[in-house]
Design goal:
Elements: H1 11-25, H2 31-46, H3 53-68, E1 72-76, H4 78-83, H5 85-95, E2 98-101, H6 108-119, E3 126-127, E4 134-136, E5 146-148, E6 157-159, H7 166-173, E7 177-181, H8 188-192, E8 195-197, H9 201-214, H10 218-226, H11 230-243
Parallel strand pairs: 1-2, 1-6, 2-3, 6-7, 7-8
Antiparallel strand pairs: 4-5
Bound molecules: ligand PTJ.
Length: 248
């Protein structure tokens, strides 16, 4: 990876950018994943590259939804696999929620590359690899319709960070609850999901882990969800975006 000087004012952002570029060379990230990342970077800039209260509210609700779920699952794409593999694997193990590789630009090479990346962090069983367990979700027309019977196919709660809209709508038609992470509060995914965490995925997993471990009863989790309103979270995010640089 290119050496980014520590005193560069945008050092962290550049290092993250280069994780995505290196991930593309290793076939973990789709070429279009670079464009998706650029879109995310622009929105992150607009929220000051920090986690706001609206994201914390959504993270608490996501933790509660995971806590109450019968069969939750974390869907993994190429960008997420290079941006925060260690933190995601850690959360998956701490919360006992399996990961499933589910790709828009699906290929056997990319599935292998993503599995190899996750294997560095000693994950549990990774779903979405074994063709014997493949099933189709007819309401999704992209290759993301190919899912694992033990994972997304049977899940009641699906975590779909950084996605482009088609899948959330298809999964909702299948009566699944959707939690997403999307820096763009206006995206189709953000608007359609049950819980939208408007934050950079690189900041989300440690906070999600903390909030998940802080819940110790179903009653507590239900109270959190009863008081959660995704529309108002999205509106709060838009308010911050439109006022952040207004110093008057
Ligand atoms: O790995 P694959 O084959 O499944 O392909 C995945 C990509 C990311 C290429 C695909 O899902 C895609 O094209 O996504 P989009 O349509 O660009 O949407 C991605 C959404 O995620 C956009 O709304 C971005 O603003 C947002 N986003 C990008 N990077 C981040 C992000 N949100 C949170 N954290 C980020 N780091």
């Amino acid at each position: 990876m290119i050496d980014i000087p520590d005193d560069h004012p945008r050092a962290e952002s550049l290092r993250t950018r280069h994780k995505i570029i290196d991930g593309m060379h290793k076939k973990i990230v789709a070429e279009a994943g670079l464009i998706a990342h650029g879109r995310g970077e622009a929105f992150d800039y607009l929220i000051g590259e920090k986690t706001h209260d609206f994201a914390i509210k959504a993270i608490k609700a996501a933790a509660a939804m995971f806590y109450l779920a019968e069969l939750p699952i974390i869907s993994v794409n190429g960008n997420v696999a290079v941006l925060c593999p260690k933190e995601m694997v850690r959360f998956s193990k701490e919360a006992g929620i399996a990961m499933e590789i589910n790709l828009f630009y699906r290929s056997d090479d990319r599935i292998d590359a993503i599995k190899n990346e996750l294997d560095k962090y000693d994950p549990g069983l990774i779903l979405g690899i074994d063709k014997e367990h493949s099933r189709m979700i007819d309401e999704i027309s992209s290759l993301r319709r190919v899912v694992d019977k033990r994972g997304i196919y049977s899940a009641d709660v699906v975590f779909v960070p950084l996605e482009d809209g088609d899948r959330t709508i298809g999964l909702k038609k299948n009566n699944k609850k959707i939690i997403t992470v999307d820096l763009n509060p206006m995206s189709r995914t953000s608007i359609t999901a049950d819980i939208t965490i408007v934050d950079n995925i690189i900041r989300v997993f440690p906070l999600l882990e903390k909030e998940f471990l802080a819940i110790n009863s179903k009653q507590q989790a239900s109270n959190i969800l009863d008081n959660y309103d995704n529309d108002s979270v999205l509106k709060d995010a838009l308010k911050v975006i439109s006022s952040y640089w207004d110093t008057s």
